[in-house]
Amino acid sequence: xxxxxxxxxxxxxxxxxxxxxxxxxxxxxxxxxxxxxxxxxxxxxxxxxxxxxxxxxxxxxxxxxxxxxxxxxxxxxxxxxxxxxxxxxxxxxxxxxxxxxxxxxxxxxxxxxxxxxxxxxxxxxxxxxxxxxxxxxxxxxxxxxxxxxxxxxxxxxxxxxxxxxxxxxxxxxxxxxxxxxxxxxxxxxxxxxxxxxxxxxxxxxx
Length: 206
What we know:
Elements: H1 2-32, H2 38-54, H3 60-97, H4 102-128, H5 138-151, H6 153-172, H7 176-180, H8 183-193
Helix pairs in contact: 1-2, 2-3, 2-8, 3-4, 4-5, 4-6, 4-8, 6-8
Organism: Kribbella shirazensis
Pfam families: DUF624
Keywords: Membrane, Transmembrane, Transmembrane helix
C-alpha cells in the first residue's frame, strides 16, 4: 500500500512539473510577441525553471513576473541586439546557402562556426543565470558565460547540436515553436548547469 502511494505521489509530482513548465512556455510565448521582451522573458524563465522542476517554491508565476521585470530593466536593449544579430545571421546563412561561387564556401565557413559560438555563449549564459546576483549586468553575464564555456566546451557543444536539431525540426513543424521555443533552450541550459555526479563504488562493476 505504501509503495503504491509512493508511486502515485511520484506520478503526481511529475505531472505537476510538466504542467508548470508548459504554463511557463505559454506565458513566454505571449510575452515574446512584443519582440523587445523575447530575451527578458527567456532570462526570467531560466531563473524560475529550477523551481518548477524541484517544486520547492510555490507561486511560480509571481516569481516569474518579478524576474521578468528585473530582466526587462537590465537586458531589454542587449536582448534586442541579440535578436537583431540572430536575425542577420539567419538571413546571411540562408542567403549564402543558395548562392553560387567560391565566396559561398568562404561565407558559410565563417558564418556557421560563428553561429555555433554565439549559441554556445547563449546557452552558457542561460546556464549561469539562475545563480546570477540581482546586480548582474550584461557585461558580468558575458564574462561568466565565457568562463562556463571554456570550462565545459564539449557539453555546451552538445547543447548547441540539440538546439540546432530542434530548430531544424521546428522549421518543418512550426507548431513545435509553441511548445518549445522557450522550454528547449531553458531545459538544455538547465541540464548543462547541473553538477556532474561523482562516481561511487556502486557505479563500479567487478
